[in-house]
Write a structure and sequence with these properties.
This protein folds into two domains: 128 residues, Four Helix Bundle (Hemerythrin (Met), subunit A) (Up-down Bundle), CATH 1.20.120.420; 230 residues, Rossmann fold, CATH 3.40.50.10470. Helix content is 41%, strand content 19%. It has 368 residues and is α/β, with parallel strands linked by helices. The strands form five sheets. The chain has a seven-stranded mixed β-sheet, with helices on both faces. A four-stranded mixed β-sheet has the order 13-10-11-16, with helices on one face. The model has no long low-confidence stretch (mean pLDDT 94).
Length: 368
């Protein structure tokens, strides 16, 4: 997508210089800055503190992190150390482990002196595949928006939560891909953007939509149910960090409450999910998906611009105030209208999931 007149991916590599570049999302939406990494430790730090964030993107970043690690140590021990370091950064999004397992499997048994070039190529393949997956999600998801427009004969109001946009992937995004395609096809659409506290990733969605010219309105997290009650939401689209084989969706904290409100008010609720986000090994999402507990200061401290337009932060609670900060929650499959994937739109249940993907491909996805 474009920032101003320039096309950007959220992350891009320069193997010739052993360097990976990425947009620093901790600076958005108030400043657009890019950073570079030359060591695996720098990639791990970027993932951990959310300079790079979004389930698909952290998987891609981790894959490139392995390539950087092998530039310095291409031994078996070096490979294992890189994978272990990167897997420890964030526990919830399955794309991280998926990408690392894929790269490790590709390199296992390969002579050390041949590993580095192969690692760069495999990481780039994962990045390019991510772009294609997300664009395909848009191709299928835009049909939901178009159908509503043809029935309602007015702009379609879509509610989002968190940021599942192009900066949370390599390009296009999962939730934003259908929105961008609708806008480009001149299907009238308006987006209610949840602010998504405590990290306010909704501000990133608003920044993206503004850059693309998509009509939108920022709302507080607690406004969603009110808007649904009053018929002002036609469709809810959310992303996912991990989906169980039964169709349960683990996503940014607050998603479950939106699903409950949508269910109570008869509003269609879809998760936009590339297939690498499906964890075929998970059957009991509540018991088996680890929920990341983020630092307490994310809740205690609010960051933004002061009255002079300069970056600032304000403490809204004292340092000794006890804080719980779970980053994700689980929405049971029965609350979802369906899942939008690169292969189409289908219901969130184990039977349809298993029928949609051939067994050979499920086996490759570590289905047990």
């Amino acid at each position: 997508m474009k920032v101003g007149d320039t096309h950007f991916r959220s992350l891009w590599a320069d193997p010739a210089k052993s360097r990976v570049h990425f947009i620093d999302q901790t600076r958005l939406p108030f400043a657009f800055e890019t950073r570079s990494a030359t060591r695996v430790e720098e990639v791990a730090e970027a993932i951990r503190v959310m300079r790079v964030r979004g389930a698909p993107l952290i998987g891609v970043a981790a894959a490139f992190g392995v390539a950087l690690a092998l530039e310095h140590d291409n031994s078996d021990a070096g490979l294992k150390r890189a994978v272990t370091t990167l897997k420890a950064t964030r526990p919830t999004a399955v794309n991280l482990a998926w990408a690392l397992d894929r790269v490790e499997a590709k390199l296992t048994g390969v002579l050390p002196h041949k590993r580095t070039e192969l690692a760069w190529a495999e990481a780039q393949a994962i990045a390019d595949e991510d772009v294609a997956l997300n664009e395909a999600i848009g191709t299928h998801g835009v049909k939901l928006i178009e159908a509503l427009y043809l029935r309602l004969k007015r702009p379609v109001n879509v509610l989002t939560h968190c940021n599942a946009g192009w900066i949370a992937t390599v390009d296009w995004g999962t939730v934003t891909s259908p929105l961008y395609k609708a806008h480009e096809a001149r299907i009238p659409v308006h987006v209610w953007v949840d602010e998504t506290r405590p990290r306010n990733q909704g501000l990133l969605t608003a920044w993206e939509l503004a850059s693309h010219g998509v009509p939108h309105t920022l709302v507080t997290d607690n406004a969603g149910g009110h808007l649904m009650q009053r018929g002002q939401v036609d469709l809810v689209l959310v992303g996912a960090d991990r989906v169980s084989r039964r169709g349960d969706v683990c996503n940014k904290i607050g998603t479950y409450l939106k699903a409950l409100a949508a269910h109570a008010n008869g509003v269609p609720f879809y998760a936009c999910v590339p297939t690498p986000t499906i964890d075929w090994k998970v059957t009991d999402a509540l018991a088996e998906i680890p929920i990341e507990e983020r630092p307490a200061d994310e809740v205690r401290i609010v960051r933004g611009l002061d009255l002079q337009g300069l970056p600032s932060q304000v403490a809204i609670a004292s340092a000794n105030t006890p804080v719980a900060n779970p980053a994700f929650d689980v929405t049971p499959a029965e609350l979802l209208t369906g899942l939008v994937t690169e292969r189409g739109v289908f219901k969130a249940n184990e039977r349809d999931l298993l029928a949609l993907w051939p067994k050979s491909q499920r086996d490759q996805a570590y289905l047990t």
